[in-house]
Amino acid sequence: GQNIDQPTEMTATEGAIVQINCTYQTSGFNGLFWYQQHAGEAPTFLSYNVLDGLEEKGRFSSFLSRSKGYSYLLLKELQMKDSASYLCAVRDRDDYKLSFGAGTTVTVRA
Amino acid sequence: GAGVSQSPRYKVAKRGQDVALRCDPISGHVSLFWYQQALGQGPEFLTYFQNEAQLDKSGLPSDRFFAERPEGSVSTLKIQRTQQEDSAVYLCASSLGRGGIIDTQYFGPGTRLTVL
Prior knowledge:
The structure holds two protein chains of two kinds. Chain A is mostly beta strands. Chain A is built from no helices and eleven strands. Helix content of chain B is 0%, strand content 47%. Chain B has strands at residues 5-7, 10-13, 19-24, 31-37, 44-50, 53-56, 65-68, 75-79, 88-95, 106-107, 111-115. In chain B, strands 2, 4, 5, 6, 9, 10 and 11 form a seven-stranded mixed sheet that branches. Chain B has a four-stranded antiparallel sheet with strand order 1-3-8-7, with no helix packed on it. The termini of chain B are far apart. The interface between A and B is medium-sized, with 23 and 27 residues.
């Protein structure tokens, strides 16, 4: 089974940086995904890590440490439109199923 | 290029009614997934298709839930004799499924089911 933990809520100021942590305990691991989900909308893909280290994509970066069962999503230069839920998901070793955390609601204030 | 579409977007059912939720995946995507998302929670896996074959239905909560993908494209999730605990958003996702390293799942907007 999968146990994936992330904080429930975070608040930050426009222009600032926020780091969303995700820890996981899984029976198998074949990659970690971050999705963004605005209220009432589809989750949209942000990033993917399967090897240790940092993946940078514009204002968003994601880090993975497989030995620690730990990932974080870093959002830089926050904009109001970044207010959303951020979902951490682990793909199991069978290479298809995603197990999600409960999501972190980020609120960006002016 | 169209994304994953789902219909209806909203469905209200009386307890005991049967419902059918439709998913149109991205054209050419081999893999199709159904997830259930309760309010304030992350999506929970229900079932997985590779083309028309249902390879994993371990997440279906009861035998009232049934999914099919008869021609390997459009899929339908059917819930019989709906109960209040079935109220949730039902998300469909598809992926290329051709052994790519990332094989990202792309999600539809979901169907919000409310059972009264």
